[in-house]
Specification:
This protein is elongated. The strands form 7 sheets. It has a 5-stranded mixed sheet with strand order 7-6-10-8-9. It has a 5-stranded mixed sheet with strand order 12-11-17-14-15, covered by helices on one side. It contains 8 helices and 27 strands. It has 430 residues and is α+β, with helices and mostly antiparallel strands. The protein folds into 4 domains: 2-97, 2-Layer Sandwich (wza like fold); 101-183, Roll (Outer membrane lipoprotein wza fold like), CATH 3.10.560; 190-352, Outer membrane lipoprotein wza domain like (Outer membrane lipoprotein wza fold like, Roll); 355-425, Roll (Outer membrane lipoprotein wza fold like).
Length: 430
């Protein structure tokens, strides 16, 4: 008899365990719920959870169910029905269709955008779906992941070098619903002067000046090993380190200048950085203009922005002043007032092209060049327009403000788009 009782309990546990587990499922946007009210068939409803986390029910109207379990939803609906509608209502809620899990993948992949997860998906499987990394992808991936039960996010960093080159499978984590994944651009350093192959080089790991020189082909015959200097940006300020030794560590964005042993003391130099074909330190000729120094450096890169920033020390008090040159006015419109004379000690920076991202139910999700005055509808048109599944009234913009992420929901089509905005076009469930 005791054996039969234990067997009965085991069978009951097997039957009820899946139901109990399902009742602990946390509901979110896109889930379809079947709601039944005992002995009130006219109140039985099938409802899909909206983008705002709501469902619409007879008598009681809209109910917010986001991040609630099925058990808690049933109790909430029963409580609302009991408030003047039905005496002691008995409500059951079950999932009739699970939402499609989605993640956002942006940055240096060949096909950035919104991806659906139909099964357990690892980081490498997702990258493969996006046709792999671009040639200028960096050595890490950053994943922003929601913490269940609150609005906070965890930040997970994946070491791409350990994963791809070292085969470290601990970095190949499972991707979760709602993950926001960003692949940043690789870091660089620059080497110029009396070096055989002056250029921009990938910064992959900690290296010394000697290793950087070796990678650039070694010194020329004119090089002075005692006259090496590094120009480095620290806290938005330019710092020039002179008398650098060969075992000095190189940092991302450093400019290593190998000077000539015969460099005349009266030669005037300027530093040219940013989106230029050959960044480095240049000697000024007499009365050199902005365009002439750009020409010396091989011209602008294709991904250069619309302005150049010049930091210049004042002749009178030595304080630094900031000059801005409009490249659009100078190059496209021929405004020669922007072609100013360059002075000794000028620090010239060519800004990168400003971009925005658009993802989701859009014909061509990608990163695009940002132009002044751009609106949401213009951005969508530029990206090929909506897909047939798009919900045009639910477009969102994710924007960084004061170092924090802010989400604008249901944005107007004439809303201005700012640099680095992420426009998300959600799927319509109806």
């Amino acid at each position: 008899m005791k054996t039969i009782t234990l067997l009965t309990i085991l069978i009951l546990n097997l039957i009820t365990a899946p139901y109990a587990a399902a009742q602990n499922y946390v509901v979110d946007e896109g889930d379809v719920l079947t709601i039944k009210v005992y002995e009130n068939e006219d109140l039985n409803t099938i409802a899909r959870v909206s983008g705002e986390g709501r469902i619409s029910l007879p008598l009681i109207g809209e109910v917010n169910v986001r991040h609630l379990t099925l058990h808690k939803i049933a109790k909430k609906i029963a409580r609302l029905l009991a408030d003047g509608y039905i005496v002691a209502p008995q409500v059951t809620v079950v999932i009739s269709e699970f939402r499609i899990k989605k993640v956002t993948l942006l940055g240096k992949v060949n096909n950035p955008g919104l991806y659906e997860l139909h099964k357990k998906t690892t980081f490498l499987e997702l990258i493969s779906k996006a046709q792999g990394l671009t040639g200028d992808a960096g050595n890490k991936a950053i994943i922003k992941r929601k913490v269940s039960g609150n609005a906070k996010e965890n930040t997970i960093t994946i070491d791409l070098k350990r994963l791809i080159e070292g085969g470290d499978t601990s970095q190949n984590i499972l991707i979760e619903d709602g993950d926001n994944i960003f692949i940043p651009t690789i870091d660089f350093y620059f080497i110029t002067g009396e070096i055989k192959h002056p250029n921009k080089y990938n910064y992959n790991e900690k290296i010394s000046v000697f290793q950087a020189v070796t990678q650039a082909g070694g010194f020329t015959d004119k090089a002075s090993l005692s006259r090496i200097k590094i120009t480095r940006e620290l806290n938005a300020q330019k710092q020039v380190i002179t008398g650098v030794s060969l075992d000095e560590d190189v940092l991302p964005d450093d400019i290593i200048d190998i000077q000539s042993a015969a460099l005349a003391s009266n030669e005037e130099e300027v530093t040219l950085l940013g989106k230029i074909r050959n960044p480095g330190i240049y000697v000024l000729d007499e009365e050199t203009t902005f365009l002439e120094i750009i020409s010396k450096a091989g011209g602008l890169r294709d991904d250069s922005g619309v302005k150049a920033i010049i930091k210049r020390k004042s002749d009178s008090d030595g304080k630094e002043e900031i000059l801005t040159i409009s490249l659009k006015r100078l190059i496209e419109e021929g405004d020669t007032s922007q072609n100013i004379l360059i002075k000794e000690g000028d620090y010239i920076y060519i800004a990168a092209m400003e971009t925005f991202f658009i993802t989701g139910e859009i014909a061509k999700p990608d990163e695009y060049k940002h132009n002044e005055g751009l609106t949401v509808i213009q951005a969508i048109t530029h990206a090929g327009g909506f897909t047939g599944k798009a919900a045009p009234t639910k477009v969102k913009i994710i924007r960084k403000m004061n170092g924090k992420k802010k989400v604008f929901s249901k944005v107007a089509m004439d809303m201005p788009v700012l640099p680095d905005d992420v426009i998300v076009v959600p799927e319509s469930f109806f």
